[in-house]
């Protein structure tokens, strides 16, 4: 081979059918690479269709909302453009222009059309996302639009003085384009004022950043708690002879295999104010019957139940790092005069850091996105960002807002996942 | 883990404290799961131990909540238990219907996840697989991405392709559950393949076996324990999943977790505890199966526990 590459005049080694060996090898390797890839291809396509595409759709939804521009007939699927005249006026006049009579005329024209297409509720809802109270403004306007006489500005203002709100015009302008960043702004407690400048919303309406912050805080707390609880038992499991540790491992694996809802239900039973733990404490005389401790429907409940549920995800990586640690290192340290604490701190602990990183990142990633447990035991101040996404999906039906919050959460998770892959390697993930 | 003979008294005290701490943590792990079992036999509709239960009085215990599981939602639960009663229960009892749905969805999701996942794991374990790391990261991601995000995305996706009008029942949920189960199949099968001796396939090829024969006669029997435990993981994932079902499931697509979720949210009836007990017993059985498979797999591949 070396000859063949250094000496161009040499024809080099060839296979039986006269092909150069190098080319034959490259050919064979390419073929086997193709084969390996073909094995993976079906699954990759499946994941792209059932997972990546839906997530893409969600990302699109977070910046796309045609509630103010298109009326879609739910039965036929037919789409009619709405608010066309107003959109034209917005196109012709730059942001910040005082709405003149022409603008109001366009608005009234559009309101009439809203009445015909029965789209007033939908358009009003879209504006209502950013300016509460606007839904009734639109339904009322559409109902009365036919009777309005020029001058339209005065007529509309007589109907409802709110139509003059510069903020409303700013919101309508941004909503008349299908693509908008307002949902991302709202998801970070920001808004545009009447002149289009970005600013924080009023103090008492800042909820999203607070919730992100709480999610972060509780997740860190849960990660630290699982680490504190997992470290001793992982160490015990790793140092016991395999016969015993396999038996004790059941205590870790059984919760891992038990239904999440079962574990959450159990914690509800235990933590209720008329539940087992409170009853036991009353029976033991630790607390009086009137002073039962509220351990559920608040942050305490979320933290306790999630620590329990995520604990196996911390124990398993720690265990797999601790098991191969050679006990003679610690013995050597002891024989050189180290106390057991020094031996632990200087010799044993540093060797377990990869396990701590793996378990910590995994638990944190899982905790940040948790939904079921906080929804059931969290009450109002123990819920996490996931619960707010579900709220916007199911209750307030502000899907673009849900999508924007989910996109922000997804971004955070992907950064953490990338970090996990860099530090731990995704192929080192083990399940029991 | 024995204490060295040179340990000082302080170290001895610490050693026993440490053991006590470990026992408490193990208790923290297991007690919440076991507590539901005795409580599910409560004869009163309470979620705590009654005095009768604590004094082991037989009248304090009853199987009424298990009975309720069978009859809940029936047209005529009080009728005599003849064949029409059973037909009524099979058709109308809410929990039985939910079980049927869960099993159907779980079965198809597991088949899909296992077939695709095993194939992919075989490809990924080949040394000359291109872009191994990024592809692996994509395939594992359904496990990492929060379920609420997946469910939200699926909601938009399924409504844009109008999957409910395709006329295939459970299709959306089955596809979603298969996606969620795939990471588990990939992880377990790749772990099994990591100890796989590739000279065995070369030997088979050398002896004249074609790739198909090699796969079914040599590779498959050796990785089967990993494939089965991956399939079990995928099944459990589907059997335990509620958020996707809540988001994209039609009203009549009730599964066990969804039924439980509704029950817990409205008001917990101790009937939930009997469901929980049954699920705990199932998980014990599954855990035992996976452990047996793991040992068998190690024996087959010649890895003995250290």
Quick overview:
The complex is a heterodimer of chains A (432) and B (306). Chain A is an all-alpha fold and 432 residues long.
Structural write-up:
The complex is a heterodimer of chains A (432) and B (306). Chain A is mostly helical. Chain A folds into three domains: 5-63, no CATH class; 70-205, no CATH class; 208-428, Orthogonal Bundle (MetI-like fold), CATH 1.10.3720. Chain A is built from 19 helices and four strands. Chain A has helices at 2-6, 21-63, 84-92, 101-117, 120-128, 134-144, 152-159, 166-175, 182-187, 208-239, 242-257, 260-271, 276-283, 299-322, 327-335, 340-368, 372-377, 385-394, 399-423, and strands at residues 70-72, 79-81, 190-192, 198-200. Chain A has a two-stranded antiparallel sheet with strand order 1-2. Chain A has a two-stranded antiparallel sheet with strand order 3-4. In chain A, a hairpin with a 6-residue loop joins strand 1 and strand 2 (79-81). In chain A, helix 3 packs antiparallel against helix 4, helix 10 (208-239) packs antiparallel against helix 11 (242-257) and helix 12 crosses helix 14 (299-322). Chain A is extended and about 100 Å long. Residues 1-9 of chain A have low confidence and may be disordered. Chain B has 306 residues and is mainly α. Chain B has three domains: 1-38; 40-92, no CATH class; 95-301, MetI-like fold (Orthogonal Bundle), CATH 1.10.3720. Chain B has helices at 9-34, 36-39, 51-54, 64-71, 83-92, 94-125, 132-144, 147-161, 171-194, 199-206, 211-239, 243-248, 256-266, 270-300. Classes of the chains: A mainly alpha (432), B mainly alpha (306). Chains A and B meet through helix 2, helix 10, helix 11, helix 12 and helix 14 of A and helix 1, helix 6, helix 7, helix 8 and helix 9 of B. Chain A: Its main location: membrane. Chain A: This is ABC transporter permease.
């Amino acid at each position: 081979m070396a000859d063949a590459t250094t000496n161009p005049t040499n024809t080099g080694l060839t296979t039986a059918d006269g092909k150069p060996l190098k080319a034959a090898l490259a050919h064979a390797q390419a073929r086997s690479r193709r084969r390996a890839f073909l094995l993976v291809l079906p699954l990759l396509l499946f994941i792209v269709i059932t997972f990546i595409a839906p997530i893409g759709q969600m990302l699109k939804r977070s910046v796309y909302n045609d509630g103010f521009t298109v009326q879609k007939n739910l039965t036929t699927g037919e789409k009619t453009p709405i608010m066309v005249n107003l959109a034209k006026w917005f196109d012709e006049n730059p942001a910040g222009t005082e709405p003149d009579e022409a603008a109001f005329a366009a608005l009234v024209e559009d309101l009439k059309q809203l009445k015909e297409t029965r789209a007033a509720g939908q358009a009003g809802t879209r504006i209502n996302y950013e300016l509460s109270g606007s839904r009734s403004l639109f339904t009322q306007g559409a109902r009365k639009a036919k009777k309005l006489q020029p001058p339209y500005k005065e007529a509309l203002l007589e109907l409802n003085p709110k139509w003059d709100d510069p903020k409303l015009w700013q919101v309508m302008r941004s909503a008349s384009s299908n693509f908008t960043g307002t949902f991302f702004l709202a998801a970070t407690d920001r808004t545009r004022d009447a002149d289009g400048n970005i600013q924080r919303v009023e103090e008492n309406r800042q909820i999203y950043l607070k919730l992100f912050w709480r999610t972060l805080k509780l997740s860190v707390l849960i990660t630290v708690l699982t680490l504190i609880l997992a470290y001793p038992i992982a160490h015990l499991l790793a140092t016991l002879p395999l016969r015993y540790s396999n038996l004790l491992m059941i205590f870790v694996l059984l919760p891992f295999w038990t239904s999440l809802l079962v574990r959450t239900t159990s914690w509800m039973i235990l933590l209720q104010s008329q539940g087992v733990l409170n009853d036991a404490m009353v029976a033991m005389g630790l607390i009086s019957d009137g002073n039962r401790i509220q351990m559920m429907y608040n942050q305490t409940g979320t933290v306790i139940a999630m620590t329990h549920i995520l604990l196996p995800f911390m124990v398993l990586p720690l265990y797999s790092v601790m098991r191969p640690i050679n006990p003679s290192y610690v013995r050597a340290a002891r024989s050189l005069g180290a106390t057991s604490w020094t031996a632990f701190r200087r010799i044993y602990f540093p060797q377990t850091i990869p396990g701590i990183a793996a378990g910590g990142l995994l638990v944190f990633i899982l905790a940040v996105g948790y939904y079921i447990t906080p929804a059931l035991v969290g009450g109002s101040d123990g819920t996490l960002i996931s619960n707010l996404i579900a709220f916007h999906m199911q209750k307030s039906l502000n899907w673009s807002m849900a999508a924007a919050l989910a996109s922000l959460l997804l971004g955070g998770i992907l950064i953490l996942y990338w970090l996990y892959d860099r530090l731990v390697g995704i192929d080192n993930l083990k399940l029991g | 883990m024995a204490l060295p003979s040179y340990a000082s008294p302080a170290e001895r005290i610490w050693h026993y404290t440490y053991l006590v701490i470990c026992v408490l943590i193990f208790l923290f792990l297991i007690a919440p799961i076991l507590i539901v079992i005795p409580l599910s036999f409560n004869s009163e509709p309470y979620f705590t131990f009654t005095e009768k239960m604590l004094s082991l009085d037989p009248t304090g215990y009853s199987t009424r909540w298990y009975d309720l599981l069978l009859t809940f939602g029936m047209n005529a639960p009080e009728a005599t238990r003849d064949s029409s009663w059973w037909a009524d229960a099979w058709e109308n009892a809410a929990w039985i219907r939910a079980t049927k749905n869960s099993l159907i969805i779980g079965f198809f999701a597991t088949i899909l996840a296992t077939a695709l996942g095993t194939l992919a794991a075989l490809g990924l374990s080949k040394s000359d697989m291109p872009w191994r790391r990024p592809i692996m990261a994509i395939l594992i991601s359904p496990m990492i991405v929060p379920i609420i995000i997946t469910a939200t995305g699926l909601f938009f996706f399924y409504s844009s392709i109008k999957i409910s009008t395709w006329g295939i029942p459970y299709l959306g949920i089955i596809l979603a559950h298969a996606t969620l189960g795939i990471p588990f199949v990939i992880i377990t099968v790749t772990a099994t393949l990591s100890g796989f001796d590739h000279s065995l396939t070369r030997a088979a090829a050398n002896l004249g076996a074609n790739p198909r024969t090699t796969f079914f006669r040599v590779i498959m029997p050796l990785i089967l324990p990993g494939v089965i435990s991956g399939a079990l993981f995928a099944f459990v994932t589907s059997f335990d999943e509620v958020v996707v079902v809540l988001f994209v499931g039609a009203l009549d697509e009730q599964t066990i977790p969804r039924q439980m979720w509704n029950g817990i949210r409205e008001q917990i009836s101790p009937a939930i505890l009997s469901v929980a007990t049954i699920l705990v017993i199932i998980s014990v059985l599954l855990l035992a199966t996976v452990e047996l498979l793991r040992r068998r797999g190690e024996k087959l591949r010649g890895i003995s526990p250290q």
